[in-house]
Design brief:
Mean pLDDT: 93
Structural class: alpha+beta
Strand order of the largest sheet: 5-10-6-9-8-7
CATH superfamily of the largest domain: FAD/NAD(P)-binding domain
Low-confidence stretches: none
Bound molecules: flavin-adenine dinucleotide
Shape: globular
């Protein structure tokens, strides 16, 4: 699943860095390694105007006064906040409460401001929003070779593989290799996750959330019946478990008003961005959602007459409908 078109170029070096340079040349100031903690609003009867932004840098409180021609775009909520990592020999430990500045900022500014939504709908239900995920670094081509033979797809051409009978509901994705710049020739990387981390595995009799990297890799290879090759795979690989408490928080049940409008009612200079604002008809989680939301935020607040990228409606695409019917009636 990916909404952004891939190019042969390194996107960070060919897009992000030149854009940052250009913005700096236009006078934009970047405050790095800083966390925004709160906003102050100018009191007025029906308007909402941010007049000051508070942030922490080097553990010291700082503030930025917001001038008449300034605009404030605030990311609220985060799907990766409070993620924790394990190792080949230790499980990742679930954080039961957020210590993330992103959630705290939303909580701080939405107190007594119903138009700013209700973060507690999304950040207080970790049991419903968590996932266990993992990455594997293979220092041997064997796993990729076996997978390509098993699936009939060259890595990077087949999409996610889901093990539908897995108690953890495991999925794994094998991308084009090399995946990273300067990835050595004989190194292969893949990523996977389990949607039910509180269930015991089919082969490893432990909850996925309590498993070490070695145990997760054992369960994965056992589903694939790579039993003979398992010792070599384990000896030449590093599997890192990761628990993400809020990864599906944006999908949680909610009612209208729990997510704020992109430009909250009465706002003169504030817009929200990220994954937790209302865009009617659009689907959360994807990069597309955040990009479209940012477009709406900027074009609306700055009153720019520019076209918002339309939402792709796959449900009306004949080819998609045909493939869906084929999958329903003739699975595999
Ligand atoms: C494992 C995984 C796989 C995914 N796969 C896909 C995929 O295949 N396709 C797809 O479309 N999407 C995918 N996504 C989702 C995609 O990564 C997100 O939708 C996207 O990154 C959200 O972008 P964003 O700019 O809204 O938020 P973020 O990427 O979270 O960026 C927000 C930034 O703002 C900073 N920030 C927030 N609050 C504050 C604050 N108070 N002070 C200072 N800085 C702050 C954060 O540190 C962060 O750098 C995946 C996500 C994960 C975790």
């Amino acid at each position: 699943m990916s909404g952004v078109r891939r190019t042969p170029f390194n996107q960070y070096e060919s897009i992000v860095l030149p854009m940052v340079e250009w913005l700096k040349n236009q006078g934009v100031r970047f405050e790095m390694n800083s966390t925004v903690t709160n906003l102050d609003f100018k009191p007025s009867e029906n308007g909402k105007t941010v007049e000051c932004l508070y942030y922490l840098y080097d553990e010291k409180e700082n503030e930025i006064k917001i001038n008449a021609n300034d605009y404030v775009f605030v990311t609220i909520g985060s799907m990766v906040a409070d993620s924790s990592l394990g190792s080949m020999t230790t499980p990742a430990i679930l954080k039961l409460k957020t210590s993330s500045f992103t959630w705290h900022l939303w909580e701080n500014i939405s107190k007594n401001q119903p138009d700013f939504g209700y973060p507690s709908v999304f950040d207080k239900r970790i049991n419903e929003s968590k996932w266990a995920s993992f990455t594997v670094t293979f220092r041997n081509p064997m796993f990729f070779q076996l997978m390509e033979k098993f699936s009939g797809n060259k890595a990077g051409t087949g999409g996610l593989i889901t093990f539908k009978d897995s108690n953890w509901l495991l999925s794994v994705a094998l991308y084009h290799q090399p995946y990273f710049i300067n990835q050595p020739d004989n190194v292969y990387v893949c990523w996977g996750y389990g949607l039910f981390p509180d269930n015991k595995g089919n082969y490893v009799q432990k909850k996925m959330a309590d498993c070490t990297g070695e145990e997760i890799l054992t369960e994965l290879c056992s589903h694939l019946q790579f039993n003979k090759e398992l010792p070599l795979i384990l000896n030449t690989s590093t599997c890192i478990p990761c628990i993400m408490p809020f990864i599906t928080s944006q999908f949680l049940t909610r009612k209208m008003g729990d997510r704020p409008q992109i430009i909250p009612k009465g706002s003169t200079n504030l817009a929200f961005i990220g994954q937790f604002c209302e865009i009617p008809d659009d689907v959360v989680f994807t990069v597309d959602y955040s990009v479209r939301l940012a477009q709406i935020a900027v074009y609306s607040l700055l009153k720019l007459n520019k076209k918002i990228t339309p939402i792709y409606k796959g449900q009306y695409n004949i080819k998609v409908l045909f493939n869906a019917l084929k999958t329903i009636f003739f699975p595999l």
